[in-house]
Amino acid sequence: MAAETAGNPTDGPAGATVNVGAVRERAEGERRVAITPETCRKFVAAGARVVLERGAGEGAAFTDDAYAQAGATLLDDADAVYAAADLLLCVQSPTADAIARMREGAVLVGLLVPQADEAGAREIRARRVVAFPLQRLPRTTRAQAMDVLSSQAGMAGYKAVLIAAQLAPRFFPMLTTAAGTIRPSKVLVVGAGVAGLQAIATARRLGAQVEGFDVRPETREQIESLGGRFLDLGVSAAGEGGYARQLTDEERAEQQRRLAEHLKGIDVVVCTAAVPGRPAPKIVTAAMVAGMRPGSVIVDLAAETGGNCELTRPGETIDARGVTVAGPLNLASSGAVHASEMYARNLLNFAVLFLKDGAIGFDWDDELLAKTVWPERESVAG
Fold first, then answer.
1. Which residue numbers are catalytic?
2. Which of 13, 107, 141, 356 is the 20 to 30 A CA-CA neighbour of 80?
3. Are residues 174 and 74 in the same domain?
4. Rounded to an integer, what distance in angstroms lies between the CA atom of residue 94 and that of residue 113?
5. Per the confidence metrics, is the pTM higher than 0.90?
6. What domain range is 154 assigned to?
């Protein structure tokens, strides 16, 4: 099926030249930006006009001058961008009020959560906005260059280990000094997704003895390829299609018993296990924390969805009888320069699917578009 031409609000804004816009992120602590000077230049080369709110990139160290040199048009406030943008790129979801100020039929792409924002979802429908929450992007080989979850998880895994190293009252590497030999810290990374693998690699670079644990036994090779040791607790959750199956109550109890015993000799735990769209699985119980040595550290990357550790308090660092438990939020934003560069490239690669010759048109036979759009295509068409 040929790509549909722009003109109908359900298919994209009309006009020979598309205005691609971004504003300064308003969410607390958010420093990333959805368009960098690099991607701005590429959008312009593709025939689009880039409109940006002044100061949009300051949190990520991208100046207005850099954007101007890349061909962007700088506008004085966010409302001017909302009114002009045919395609609005964002990091965090805009508020319902912001969506209400967008052009009718505009396209919105970013880390959107309409299912959790009733007012925002209502405005998306009312303004006939074509929204693409990139968390819905199919996890296929073709989609890897657009996978914002993976690119941002890599930064989060890296930063989590640096936080752990700062909080730990121990060196990570082995040191031989005149005062004697210091043994390396023992680090356990729970979860071997993108964030977990980056955490393993970073901890190894810092010189720690590193183990990785995941309920999927096929992750062993990935963990070992990074210099870590696969922690085998004797319970396999191997399922079909590369996904983990649910453990039985008996299997889970045995896994928990063995993990509790193992944690007694661990200095640092980095938790990264997450299930998209669901609360994080509770893996490290309060009893396990109580059995760890004083001075041990837990950094819980899953804090935003409740945490893998039972004692995690999102956004806080607490002392649990001598064990430090940190629940940092939005870690990718703390590496705003490189996180923004990766994120903006992801968005550019996704936008190329429907931005052609200075106009917007959707081929709804493309599964990357059809499975990512919200509301689903049937709703949009109606």
1. 139, 144, 147, 150, 243
2. 356
3. no
4. 10
5. no
6. 149-326
